[in-house]
Amino acid sequence: MDNLRKEWLLNALLALALFAVPLWAWMANEPFIITLATRIAILAIAGVGLNIALGLGGMVSFGHALYLGIGGYVAGIAAHHAFSGTTVLGLPGTNQMLPIWAMAMALSGLIAGIVGALSLRTSGIFFIMITLAFAQMGFFFTLSWPAYGGEDGLPIFVRNQFPGLNTARPWELFLIAYGVLLASLGVFAMLRAARFGAALMAIRQNPDRAAAIGISPFGVKLVAFVLSGMITGLAGAMMADLTRFVSPAMMAWTMSGELIVIIILGGVGRLFGPVAGAAILVGFEVFFGGVSEHWKLWLGLVLLAVVLFARGGLIGLIAGRAQNV
Amino acid sequence: MSDPVLDLRGLSKSFGALKATDDVSLTLQPGEIHALIGPNGAGKSTLMGLVAGKIAPDAGHVRLDGTEITTLSVAQRARAGLARSFQVSSLIPDYSALRNVMLALQARQGHSYRFLRPVNRDTALREGARAALARVGLGPRASVEAAMLSHGERRLLEIAVALAMAPKCFLLDEPMAGLGSEGTARLVTFLNALKHEAPILLIEHDMDAVFKLADRISVLVYGRIIATGAPADIRANQQVRAAYLGEEAAT
């Protein structure tokens, strides 16, 4: 079997497993497992966002928690005002997920545009540090923002609503997250296959060559960075609704690191890399977190092994090198 | 004389105290191959960088087809019709030969911000790329990744990419390097025909090839052009012999 078919089979298996396990849990009345699967799906959406910048474009953003946090705060603030019946900047709050998602994506995209325009003039370690610096600015800003909880964070008393579904039920919330995950994977696959993806991946491999044939690296990378931030921002809004809580911790640099870890574990630039990576991360947290509080040590060892012996992550280990032909 | 396709006027570039390019003026006429030769360290690469837009000049102008392009970026110059090949093969390593050429076609059309349609189903792009590959004899290797091609094949792929850009002029930086005598002979024939599509500014170390191919030769020494002329004149030029060919004559 060639590698391309292996990868599609593995992708189908992952998609199926992520649906079948919570389906079983729903029938067996195990809400905790459904919530875990929802968490995997939402982290995977955030990872899909980062995978556009990091995987396709080679932009190692160490500040993607910023967009996760922006999405989270949009959801939290909208719900806060809807709950208290007050307005924010003259706008009423809302407890509807769809307008919240639109707002989260718009704001994340705007901020990613500013951060990208400034940081994409650099590369390598400087790019990593500048993206980190911007995320830290967001972190300390929310930390010192008493109107929305400051360091205590902001609770969402009643989970935001989705038309036709009851979001208070774990299974129905999972269905929403799963649907959005599939949609974001579809967007990723479409971008990768299109002319835009061809240009972006070429720039990652050889920016001088891309420029020499007439493709300006800066513009293509900036658009990719904005799209990347938007999808991660969407995941942030969903994450806030899952935990019904948003706090500065969502913007902490450790969260940015976790997103990178997800991509590396699953497979950089691979369509289902973030799904595999998020499943591994949450799996570790649950299985080893129960055994020892030092579970991150074991995760670190696995990460080390992946970086040293399986650069393509889980997907690469099973399905071989990425095919661009 | 007709209007030059590429017109360099008074280009200068210093790195600290080093004058890498010192008041260089040269033209590239339609249908000609203008070779740039000079000993190592003469500033050929810097001059190439100035023309391609990688390096900004301290003074001077670059005009392409009568249009000022001195302040344009590398990508803008490429879209304006300047196709360069690199001294060390510089391709997209993970892309097949076909996709390397398709990318150049896509860039030429200026449509890289297309997000929906899969590029692999773009038959116009594929056919155009196949045609360019066939011209350099790489047709059978279309689906091989650039990283897996032999050195000689990569040099040919560089040419195919430049062809796909349908440029106003070619900048070829040592296209013969490492090709071997048979490959060089074939490329000489190819370039001799290519110059009628668009003139070629050629940097080349292989002196046999240069004197066989070039319509005019400029000799660069310490960043200055010390002579420009037909191959026979350059061969006879005493200053050139002293500065440059003398080394070769001795060996």
Automatic annotation (TrEMBL), chain B:
UniProt keyword list: ATP-binding, Nucleotide-binding, Transport
UniProt xrefs under InterPro entries: AAA+_ATPase, ABC_AA/LPS_Transport, ABC_transporter-like_ATP-bd, ABC_transporter-like_CS, BCA_ABC_TP_C, P-loop_NTPase
Record bears the keyword ATP-binding: yes
GO molecular-function term, one example from the UniProt record: ATP binding
KW DNA damage (keyword) present: no
SMART domains according to UniProt: AAA
Domain ABC transporter, residue spans: 6-247
PROSITE patterns: ABC_TRANSPORTER_1, ABC_TRANSPORTER_2
Gene3D superfamilies xref list: P-loop containing nucleotide triphosphate hydrolases (3.40.50.300)
GO CC list: plasma membrane
The protein, known as: ABC transporter ATP-binding protein
Organism: Roseinatronobacter bogoriensis subsp. barguzinensis
